[in-house]
Design a protein that fits this description.
The protein is an alpha/beta fold. The chain has 2 domains: about 1-95, Alpha-Beta Complex (Spore Coat Polysaccharide Biosynthesis Protein SpsA, Chain A), CATH 3.90.550; about 95-313, Spore Coat Polysaccharide Biosynthesis Protein SpsA, Chain A, CATH 3.90.550. The protein contains 14 helices and 9 strands. Strand 6 (about 110-125) and strand 7 form a beta hairpin. Helix 13 crosses helix 14 (about 295-310). The radius of gyration is 19 Å and the shape is globular. The mean pLDDT is about 90.
Length: about 325
């Protein structure tokens, strides 16, 4: 099926260990008119040699040196240099479903500015660490930013012009630069998600999310206070909450999505973004737990997977 070309944006620093697998993976994901834009952020290993050879073998690959320093600088440089309207973020140590781009583009409308997906987590020793299920539709995806867990940076396909209009990535928000961008983007259009796991996200002790975990938690909290969830989306989420739950019935893992939707609702209440008068919502949740044995098992499983991910970091 023909589609518009996209730019795959890969910032990289000292990624020689992962590059052979990444190259094979990405070449199965892209189309004949796509661009793979690699921003080398001052690698000191053999990354540059791998990239030079890759660009020689594949004319779709364009390798550039980051004129600045650091991830935020590399990302903004990539935004300026990308030649296509839609950009798919990738990381060198993750894996992607071969149909990722096509499936995400299929959700693009005139109102959509970013498309995410479900994602599976795994340890560097290939141990599975569970799957994070996305909120699927607007405004549920926007509201899910309250927990900052369901919109993985390396899962996103976003509109370049919208991201630039939102101010791009901000160094002051690092290492929560992605959450900050999603919050600002939500003011410009719809955030949606493919209800399938299109990303395998590696959790390892060497990653930014592991090395800067405490700083990331602190910065995410600050960003949520400074920018906040889009109030219009909060209101729409509250008004259509029961419809959102019903709509999950047509998707896989609907119980998991419902559980996370309830969690988002209660988190909004805790943050005083929704008035704490949702007695019927709490009653519905209690009834659902009591009448659905699977939902109780899900609570236990998700808590275990969260603890396991914390341990391996």
């Amino acid at each position: 099926m023909e589609r518009s070309p996209i730019t795959v944006l890969l910032p990289i620093r000292n990624g020689e260990f992962y590059l052979p697998d990444t190259i094979a993976n990405l070449q199965n994901c892209i189309g004949s008119d796509d661009e793979i834009l690699v921003i080398d952020d001052g690698s000191l290993d053999k990354t540059a040699l791998f990239l030079t050879e890759w660009s020689r073998e594949n004319p779709l690959v364009r390798v550039m040196k980051n004129p600045g320093s650091g991830l935020v600088s590399a990302l903004n440089f990539g935004l300026r240099e990308a030649t296509n309207s839609w950009i798919a973020r990738v990381d060198v140590d993750d894996f992607y479903d071969s149909g990722r781009i096509q499936k995400q583009l299929s959700l693009v409308t005139s109102n959509v500015v970013a498309v995410f997906s479900d994602y599976a987590l795994f340890h560097s020793l290939d141990r599975g660490l569970g799957t994070i299920f996305s909120a699927v539709s607007h405004p549920a995806v926007s509201v899910s930013l309250i927990t900052s867990q369901r919109t993985a940076h390396s899962s996103v396909l976003f509109n370049r012009d919208a991201v630039i209009s939102a101010g791009g990535y901000r160094q002051s928000d690092f290492p929560a630069e992605d959450l900050s961008l999603w919050l600002r983007l939500s003011r410009l259009g719809d955030l949606v998600s493919v209800p399938e796991s299109l990303l395998k996200y590696r959790v390892s002790k060497g990653s930014i999310s592991s090395n800067k975990q405490e700083l990331m938690i602190q910065r995410k909290s600050e960003v949520l206070k400074q920018i906040g969830i889009n109030p219009t989306d909060v209101l729409l989420f509250k008004e259509t909450f029961k419809s959102i739950l019903e709509n999950y019935n047509v998707h896989a893992n609907y119980n998991e999505r419902k559980l996370l939707a309830y969690r988002d609702y209660f988190k909004l209440q805790e943050s005083n973004l929704i008035s704490n008068d949702g007695v019927s919502i709490k009653s519905d949740f209690a009834t659902w737990l009591l009448t659905s044995p699977r939902s109780q098992l899900l609570l236990s499983r998700m808590a275990f997977e969260k603890a396991l991910r914390y341990f391996v970091r």
